[in-house]
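re: ur question from earlier - yeah i can do the single chain one, its not a big deal. heres the input i used so u can compare w yours
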Amino acid sequence: MSTTSTATTCYRHPSRETAVSCSGCGKPICTDCMTPSPVGMRCPDCATQSGKAVRLPVLSGRTETPVVTITLIGLSVLGFLLGGGFPGGAQTQLFYDGGLAAVPVAGGEYWRLVTSGFLHAGLMHLAFNMILLWFIGSQMEPQLGRGRFLALYVVSLLGGSFGAILLSPNALTVGASGAIFGLMGAACAIIYARGGNPLQSGIGMLLVFNVVFSFVLSNVSIGGHLGGLTAGALAGGAFVMAERKGNPAIGWAACAAIGIVALVGSLLLSAAAVPTFIG
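and the output i got, formated as C-alpha cells:
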C-alpha cells in the first residue's frame, strides 16, 4: 500500500478524503474502493484486471498506531489493579463501587454504566478481553479512524450496560466484553453493508464462537454481550450509510442517538428494578 503525505479525494467518490493510493495506478481510493492484494491496496479497476485480489472492506490492517485501543487496554489494566487485581489481593471497594448494578444506578451512581466496563473479576477475565480488544482494535481503529472507533466503543459499552440491567438487574456486572462484542458487531455490519460475507472473515467466526460461549459458560452476562452487540452493529451500519451519502454527520448523529437510548433505557430499567415496600 502506498500513501500520500496530504489527504486527497477518492477518484470515484470526490466527497471522501483519503490518504491511500492504489498500489497499481496511484489513484486515490477511499475505504469502499480498497481491495487488498499481495502488493498493497488496489482500486476497483486494477483489482478487476488482476482478478486475484480478495475484497476485505474491514480489518485489512494498516500501519497507523492504534492509540485509542492501547489507551483502552491501559485503562482496563489500571482499573483491574486498583480494583484489587494484584496477585493474591482481594477486591477493593472501588470494584464494588464501580461495578454495574441496577439499584445503585437508580440511586444516582450513574458512573457505574461506564466504569463497570473497565473493571474485571479476575486475571483470566482481563486477559481474555484485552487479547480480543487488541486483536480487533489494532485492525479496526486504523480503518475507521480514532474518533469513530472510540464512539463505537462507548456506544457499545452503554448498550452492554443496558442489556445487563435488562436481563440481570440485581447482579454485579463488570468487564469490557459488552463493548468488545459491539466492536465485533460493528465490523460484521460494515462488512455486510459493503457486500461482503462476515462469516467468511475471521471477525465473523470469532463473533459466532463468542456468542455460543456466552450461552454455554456460567457467570457470563448474556444481556451485556447481546446489548453491546446490538448497539455496535447499529452504530457501525449507521457509519456506512453516512459514508455512502457523503454526510458524516448522519453517522455521528445516529451513533449519539443509539448511545442516548441505551443510557436513558438503563436509567429507566434501573429505576424499575428498585423494590417497592408496601405496608
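The CA atoms of residues 111 and 165 lie 14 Å apart. not sure if urs matches, ping me
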